[in-house]
Amino acid sequence: MIRLPSLSSLRLRFLLAVSLWVLLGIAAIWISAASIFSAHVEQSYHEELEVHVRELARLTEIAPDGAIRLSRPLSDPRYEVPLSGFYWQVTAPGREPLRSRSMTQGALDESIAHSPEILHRVDSGPTGAAITYGFTRRGPAGEDIHFVIATDQSELDRLIDAFTADLALWLAGLAALLLGTGLAVIAFGLRPLDRLAAAFGRLRRGEALELEGEYPAEIAPLAADLNAYIRQNEEMVARARVQAGNLAHSLRTPLAVITDEAERLTERSECAASGAVLLDQARAMEQQVEYQLARARSSAGRKRSGKGVVIPEVAVPILRAMERLHPERRFTMRATGCEGLVLPLDPVDFAELLSILLDNAGKWALSAVTLTFECDRKGHFTAEIEDDGPGMAEADIARAFEVGTRFDRAMAGSGLGLAIARDLAEAMGVDLAIRNGERGLRAMIRFAGDGVIE
Ligand SMILES: Nc1ncnc2c1ncn2[C@@H]1O[C@H](COP(=O)(O)OP(=O)(O)OP(=O)(O)O)[C@@H](O)[C@H]1O
Ligand SMILES: [Mg+2]
């Protein structure tokens, strides 16, 4: 289906303006050219008829027997062809009228020829409406001789129609040419905006750090301002992260003192209950502080990298690190069909997300962890991390992403991994889910945007 551009499109507005302008221009040319031509043709036609009627009078003779005759035929041969649309007639009272050979039927109305001055009007002739010219001249006996010349109006119309048909053809060609150049100018003029949109796309997909490219003077300040705004924003976010990290850090020591004090209170029987509440709350605060510190550590001072996530390369160093961290587990990776896929995501964030999930799988697996990348033709991508450990109770799965939740106290950890993983997934715009698989736990990262196969 053809998608029509919306009315808010600049292209459509320009196109409408150009079309309107071309249409108005062509209509003006059409009207003025047609009227100038008709006036011109009519004038020369009339002049010609005047010449003919004068010639007719000059050639007319009255024979000795009183008959009207011509000393020679009129110079225009069309008066000789029967019903050609060109007729003449000479009449005088008491004499046989003389008519052109073309007039095999009918007669011309001689009333137009009633004065020595040449007069004209449109009359009905032998073959339809005719432009008729006539005047009188005195004969040898002092009688009025009437000279009439007529030409079918349709002759003149035919000339004008032929011209307007030609004019229409030429003007249609001219309109097409003007519209074509108009379209080309619009396309050329708006190309920088397309480039700007493409640069935005690259920026949004994380392939570029700022709006790249050279732009014309009208757009360049906009691009420069946007770049300045992006930089300023990034610096602000980085500063905020550092400040959150600093705040968390400064709370650490007082919190440790409070926790210590709360522990001591629980040992005294008279305030054991209050001590337990204090201790609980202090631990919760400690976890939040650790979480904020971990987030600040992972993102503070880091510049976004311009490249996307390259599958499966992104996972290779992580798997190597995991093998060292959990030497008794076997890590395997499958990436059939996804080799060379580049996801428009931040590679550092993506690597951190994979590390958290692989670390959990390594911690709880009995012996094996598999990482599987899958992608389909629509550009949908999934990464699945599966272990052969105990999995999790369904009720625990729902809470596993909260800060500080740990369900297996026997295993070391701070309960922050999945909370950070969820934050990272949200920041990248990917789906993250965990569920129990056939053997152990299965974590899934799903990305529905467009990947690029290189
Ligand atoms: N693959 C897994 N198999 C079984 N249980 C898991 C698995 N992954 C996570 N869990 C459970 O979810 C809890 C939360 O995981 P999370 O990664 O947030 O914290 P952690 O691994 O305990 O600590 P951290 O990652 O901060 O060192 C874990 O304590 C564990 O009980
Ligand atoms: Mg963990």
TrEMBL record:
Residues 187-238 form the HAMP domain. It is found in: Membrane. It comes from Erythrobacter litoralis. SMART domains: HATPase_c. Keywords: Kinase, Membrane, Phosphoprotein, Transferase, Transmembrane, Transmembrane helix, Two-component regulatory system. This is histidine kinase. It is an enzyme of class 2 (transferase). It catalyses: ATP + protein L-histidine = ADP + protein N-phospho-L-histidine. GO terms for cellular component: plasma membrane. One of its GO terms (molecular function) is phosphorelay sensor kinase activity. The chain crosses the membrane at residues 12-37, 167-190. Its EC number is 2.7.13.3. Residues 246-451 form the Histidine kinase domain. It holds the Pfam family HATPase_c. PANTHER family: SENSOR HISTIDINE KINASE TRCS, SENSOR HISTIDINE KINASE YKOH.
